[in-house]
Design goal:
- The protein has 338 residues and is of the alpha/beta class.
- It has 3 domains: 3-40 and 186-337, Rossmann fold; 43-136, Orthogonal Bundle (Helicase, Ruva Protein, domain 3), CATH 1.10.8.240; 143-182, no CATH class.
- It is 37% helix and 19% strand.
- It is built from 13 helices and 15 strands.
- It has an 8-stranded mixed β-sheet, sandwiched between helices. Strands 7-6-8 form a 3-stranded antiparallel β-sheet. Strands 3-4 form a two-stranded antiparallel sheet.
- Helix 4 (98-112) crosses helix 5 (117-128).
- The chain is globular and about 60 Å long.
- It binds guanosine-5'-diphosphate and calcium ion.
- Calcium ion binds next to helix 2.
- Keywords: Magnesium, Transferase.
Amino acid sequence: MTAITVLAGGIGGARFTRGLLRHLADTDPDATVTVIVNTGDDMWLDGLRVCPDLDTVMYTLGGGINEEQGWGRPEESRRASAEIAAYGRGWSWFTLGDLDLATHIVRSDLLRSGSTLSEATEFLCRRWQPGARLLPMSDTPVETHARLAIDADEHRAGELIHFEEWWVRYRATVPVTGFVQVGLESAAPAPGVVDAILTADLVILPPSNPVVSVGTILAVPGIREALRSTAAAVVGVSPIIAGAAVRGMADACLNTIGVQTSAEAVGLHYGSRAGNGVLDGWLVDETDAGALPALAAAGIRAVAVPLWMRDAPTTAALAAEALALGALGAHPAHRAHA
Ligand code: GDP
Ligand code: CA
């Protein structure tokens, strides 16, 4: 039975995994998929624990996602948020829809009564039946913060603000000097995380944000080491196509850590497992085929294929390419090889 482990952020990781599950349903129905999800974006809002990436993955795989937005629930209302605002509380820059709020209330209740985040996630997934095992990267709170390079509203230069405030309130346009994962030193991988990497037949880094999604997961002590030592192949899918983030502001994160916004630079940033990195294989878009020689020279087996997840069939086809690269087997002749 094939075991596949995916390290995911929100939208990109969720959509890729949905395509992977669709492909496996047709080709390998006994395969199991574990998704290790970034929790660096988690925060307390109005007394509720909000886990943006876990919820995006859970709703996307469970059929409850707002497809246009890529996060939250469809047919939402904002009545509770409006009431909270009427008390002069809440966050004007972060919307919590009424249906979504129910998820946060249940999760927060479970956490307050002593459940771990893993247990709370498992409980929520009993309703959503995502078709994959969802594991938070850690049960210990780790929250990504951005250090402001300039003053912004009530914040001063040098101050750390929560990543979601930088991302959602400031649309990543206020310059920052770096990211800090608050709580990381004392964080351990959640139960099952290291095992899911070590016992997998294939580990996939989907097209998620390389800095604040996959980068944060890899920073949890022990996870990067597990990726480097697993007998499974580790393959990644570039979130960058033709020098641009497909959606969102991943380029702002890459700029901040001094990595160019290109499929080649991100692949080299992850690095080859033959060196000090985490990748055996790397999928770049057809338009980025020029990056193949440099990636090959760095010890990464790179292949150029269509990377746009336009709909269910193109996303399933992309997942199939990741599986093929992971098998390091024969590839159809039409594709360019490193
Ligand atoms: P977030 O937590 O919701 O920001 O989601 P992720 O961490 O999973 O990463 C989102 C990233 O996925 C975006 O910044 C894009 O670079 C990438 N992405 C989104 N859609 C596509 C797509 O269709 N193809 C590829 N290759 N990347 C995509
Ligand atoms: Ca996220």
